Amino acid sequence: MEEEKGKKIEKKAEKKGLDIRAVTICDATAQMLRKAERDGVETAFHRAADMKPCPIGADSACCKHCSMGPCRLNSKDPYGKTGVCGATIDTIQARNFARMVASGASAHTDHGMSMLDVFREVVTGQITDYKIKDTNKLEEVAKELDIETEGRETKDIAMDVYHELERTYTQVEGEIPFAKRVPAKTLETWRKNGVVPRGSMREIMELMHRTHIGVDQDFENITKQCTRTALSDGWGGSMVATEISDILYGTPTPVRTEVNMGCLKEDHVNVIIHGHEPNLFESMLDSVNDPSLIQAAKEAGAKGINLVGMCCSGTEMLMRHGIPHVGNFSSTEAVLVTGAVDTMGVDVQCIMQGLAKVADCYGTKLFTTNPRAHIEGVEHIELNEHKPRECTDAIVEHAIIRFKNRNLPIEIPNIRNLGIHGFSHEYINYMLGGTFRSSYTPLNDNIINGRIRGVAGVVGCTNPRVKHDYVHVELVKELIRNDVLVVQTGCSQIALAKAGLYTPEAAHLAGSGLKEVCETVGMPPVLGVGSCVDNSRILIACAEMVRVGGLGNSIADLPVAGAAPEWMSEKAISIGHYFVGSGVYTVFGVHFPIVEGTKFHRHLFEGLEELGFGKWGFAADPFEMARMMIEHIDKKRKALGIDKARERVLMDMADRQKLEAA
To answer: 268 with 410: CB under 8 angstroms?
Structure first.
């Protein structure tokens, strides 16, 4: 029967023209896709080949927000007709775009609020399995929020921080707490345009209301609330999630660790944690190191328990604890095809429902753990943060039983890629200036003198609609070759780590200026800063570059650009729009969900920049994307008067003394 199924899927793949080398550049994923076809198992890559996307929906030229529709407009003649209610193409597109922003912002906001809830319970002593690990970070955050720290107990400082950050979500008037971090000129632009976030809940609620039929029918006004909502994500929900995670579990510092499917071990019990919130993974770390569970694994015939990560929670553990990472979003099904995964525990966001069928095919035990995210037919073991070990111990126990009863062939790609991860904003600050002079000044100076052309954030998902990992890798190679320092988060980070760009030795691929800086500091030309929620670290870095001086007075003045080359989720749209709202030129790949040539398209791609924000860009080709980003960086360098590299000047003792005084 398995052979019959295998023949069927091979025929289907042949019929659809699925060329495995055309859908991924990841050798491990390609190897597992071949095995999946032999085994008669379907993955997202096969489903993508079998599912033609709706061209009208892809262009966001349809509206299904009321029962008079769905109304479908023609993207070839967008102004030829309107919806039944009279809604124009611009109103329809703006509403659809707004709902993507609202959904994406709600994902990060809910994540951040959950982290804040855990933080409160830790501070009050209701949760005892987690502790505050980084009191320095706690105090730094408190100071930024104008909370007194001198001579006070950690618990009292922490409670004040909790109450202040709670306003990020619940406040109905005023400005969110981390607006204090926004450069003055950028904040002035926000205030002038009426987009300073109040509280995330209010912004998301209002945006959803405005997109209801018969409410907001002006695309510029809808975009205004889109911007306010997205900013409540980047400078609110996401930023709180990152800061609280650092306080509770430690601020990342560089660690050498491995990525790719070769991190699985045939002679070990293999446990994968996949999702986005770090609480499950942190508890799992304790479970897999429990002597009684290790002994149980050995009694079952295993040499030990091997814990590995996937997607964003995996990236957080990669950075904080050096836990190996086996793959990004598009590889989540393929890794189960190895047959070596004994259990996979998932929480929220980017969990494919298709995992259930693939896990079932290989006898892998798949468990949901979060009350907000069940999967039909999948066993649920809920994580209660007050007693998290009940969940994580149970997952490990099931993994041991599955290991003992393995009865299918195992094939693990022998591919592991070593790299350095964990470049938090705090560590970059220290790395550039040392303990006594930690500062972004060396970064700014090297941008001003031309060794570093600019900085690019290359972030986001992978997408089976395009060649897996390819656009990320080729874009980043082209950027660093042109002396652009790259910072990364999420699935993009793993794509580049698999390509070997996370070692200092990768500096030989960079232009001469960036290469010199990398060799001097001993860093890779590509810096991983965390999970997708940690894009807030990039915002903080941009704000710090402005604060240090020499590169303008606003984030919009900086020679920086952003990209999400293989985006696929609504979270990505919210992330992209909060970077645009903050002043960053942001280029997306795959497909942009707007009809080109419409007034709404012009507003996003040109009009927002005219108002003092950043702007959107689109390119499917990585080299075109790089060209656009580099042109923008050069435009900003010219506006700053630093478009020509300065000559190097050897410093004498008097110059050094001036620097000391400064």
So the answer is: no
